[in-house]
Amino acid sequence: MSTGQKRRLHLALALIGDPDLLFLDEPTAGLDVEGRISLHTQIRQLKARGKTIIMASHDMAEVESLCDRIAILRDGKIAFNGAVDELTSKMPGHSRIHIKTERPIQNADCEQGYWVFTSANIGDTLLELLKICNESGNTVLDVKIEKATLEQRFIDIAREAVL
């Protein structure tokens, strides 16, 4: 059997008794793209049917796509427990605001025509930037918000143990 076929068999065997709680350990490891998509679809269908799924995975894109809540372990203890959005949006740090204006903004780094600002609070920083532009008569042409990724936050938490 191929790895994909084995994974499908393992899932079928796990579901035979129609459990309410399902444990999956690295469920897509070794799968090709098509097998991955198929398994993700199955997991979403199980969630929609009200099944509780506890999944261990190192694939942050998979975790972000499939999980309602996550727990990150460090040194055998839970270092974070909550929603992905709580970890990526509400914790201070890596968020960046990219703002394109008609004229340069002083003391700002420029990347591909956008002035870039790192922010711990997107709302406050954005309001301040818009106020500065408005008061100086500098027209805002575009704004992009780049939030921290789950992978960045995972690394931050993992590194805390090293520091």
What does this structure look like?
The structure is a single chain. With 163 residues, this protein is of the alpha+beta class. The chain has two domains: 66 residues, 3-Layer(aba) Sandwich (Rossmann fold), CATH 3.40.50.300; 52 residues, no CATH class. Helix content is 42%, strand content 27%. The protein is built from six helices and eight strands; from the N terminus they run αβαβαββαβββαβα. The strands form three sheets. A four-stranded antiparallel sheet has the order 6-7-5-8, with helices on one face. Strands 1-2 form a two-stranded parallel ribbon. Strands 3-4 form a two-stranded antiparallel ribbon. Strand 6 and strand 7 form a beta hairpin. The longest helix has 16 residues. It is elongated and about 65 Å long. The model has no long low-confidence stretch (mean pLDDT 86).
